[in-house]
Design goal:
Largest sheet: 6 strands, mixed, barrel
Shape: globular
Protein name: rhizopuspepsin
Organism: Linnemannia hyalina
EC number: 3.4.23.21
Number of strands: 28
Strand content: 35-45%
GO biological process, one term: proteolysis
Radius of gyration: 20 Å
Family: Belongs to the peptidase A1 family.
Distance between the termini: 16 Å
Helix content: 10-25%
Length: about 400
Amino acid sequence: MRITALVSLAAAVLAIADASPLKFSPKHGHAVPLTRNPNYRHNTQAQINKMNSRYGNIRAASTGTVPLVNVDHDIEYYGTVSVGTPAQNVKLDFDTGSSDIWFPSSTCTTTACKKHVRFNSATSSTFQKDGRKWNIGYGDGSTASGILGSDIVSVGGIQVRQTIGLATAESASFGTSPEDGLFGLGFNTIESVAGVKTFLDNAIAAGVLAQPVVSVFLPSYRRNGGVGGEYLFGGINANHYTGSLTYINVSQKGYWQIPMSDITYNGASLGQSAQGIVDTGTTLVIIGTAAAKAVHQKIAGSVFTAATRTQSAYWSVPCSLQSSSDNVGFKLGGTIFNIPVADVAYEDLGDGSGLCYSGIQGGQDDLWILGDVFIKNNYCVFDQGTTPRIGIAPAKY
């Protein structure tokens, strides 16, 4: 999968109020076309290092400010968001593992900012000053900071007035990121500035969503060439999954956190369970140390490489498994949702060993993280209704 995908967004403004699926057609919303970047080269070791910095060992009861991800992912999904009047377009990474919306201000003169679209608030007739300062620190030492404001934010045709973070300073490491900033889809309890409402909060309150949901279909390069992905705001696209959705209630608001009752291999229990989060901002699946060992003990030829001063510990598996029909499953809400072992063989180490980095890594010994390796195989509906929940069904290609 040597692509960077632009996530297409869709917004369903329907005349129904329940969380029922729809047969999607153009009248139900607006989609932004997906674009492939065939020249992007991913770096799994860098991704593993970043994931250890992203969360550390996040706690099941954690609240408050959370370090966010440097959006230089191995495989990245981002979409175009319009801000202000007249509209200025920015490319943002949609992230259910954080809640802030931010991007560079035109007043930012750092090298990193100059490599991205910078929002000019002075030319927007709908911009309103806020004045509060915000700052974000990352585990790898990178930082961004600036001031808050508010403006009209449009996503797939859904428009609300939204508090935004305008970066006036960014550290150099942001310069390599293809996205201009971040679009958080988590709960407001993990906003960097207390009291700020999320885009979903405001869209639901304004009544502009037919259903209080955002549904995610991430494309798989292996399964369909990496085309056709979308974030659907306000609806559920039944064309993108098979069977029916299984709903699991959120156990702790902040992240989209749910109980994970087991891991299976070809349907057989491995006796591993934990609380975990479903996170579109994470490329890999990151689970506990013991759980990762249990999984890889079932995969012949797996190799564990210990951490050094310059790299995190990691699991690798034979690249030949990219033709395997085996599955690693996660039991959620009583249903097993699979990741094909063909996707566990993630990226060639490039050392002639015939080994690939595994798409399932260990070291996350509190909350597990089901990232894009899981989500591209399983359609996910993030439902922020009265009882927040996640609906999951096998993805259909």
